[in-house]
Amino acid sequence: MLSNTMERTQPGTTALPPYLLDLVGQARRSVEIDPDFTRRCLEEISSLLTSVTSAVVERGLAPSGPATPAGTLAKGGLASWQIQRVRAYVEEQLDNTVLIEDLAGVAKLSPGHFCRAFKASTGETPHGYIVRQRLRRAQTLMLNTNDTLSQIACACGLTDQAHLTRLFRRMLNETPLSWRRNWRFA
Question: Could you tell me the keywords of this UniProt record (predicted)?
């Protein structure tokens, strides 16, 4: 099954194959209608993710961002200690405003150089990374707390519930409320 899955991905990337996304969609649609089919879909998804993860580790590819052999840096990118420090800083400050100048200071670079190096290392801009982390925290809070979406938005450093909804819809093509209903008791 892995060979079929790997053929469907673009060479040189570690993106999830479309087949996996199709399985997730099928499982979501059939969860109440056909639990046995849903279970089979989830088992297939689990085995695919295990296989893809094993293939990534065997190839020595970075866990996120562009595919580069382990131990090498992307040309013009950040050192691993810089990436680790920036990620830790973002995680600590996620409920506050995170400025590029502060991130650059953590990496001991100028803001302009930091932005270019961060994108070269991770494949996304610092702002995109911060937004994605905020949405991940929002998802975690939606699943694990009974807080309102407005409270969750503020806890994730977003302005209000409307801001959370706009970002959520843009990134996940779904509103936070419908996502929460679909995944909370799944």
Answer: DNA-binding, Transcription, Transcription regulation
DSSP letters spanning 138-165: HHHHHHH----HHHHHHHTT-SSHHHHH
For 34-84, write each residue's pLDDT tens digit: 777 777 777 777 767 766 665 554 554 444 444 444 445 557 789 999 999
CA dihedral sign of residues 151, 153, 156, 159: negative
DSSP label at 15?
Answer: P
Sequence-distant (6+) residues with CB within 8 A of 135 are: 156, 167, 168, 171, 172
- ∠ CA 72-74-79, nearest 5°, is 70
Its pTM surpasses 0.85: no
Could you read off the pLDDT of 113-167 as tens digits, one per residue? 999 999 999 999 999 999 999 999 999 999 899 999 999 999 999 999 999 999 9
Closest by alpha carbon to 156, among 84, 73, 95, 92?
95
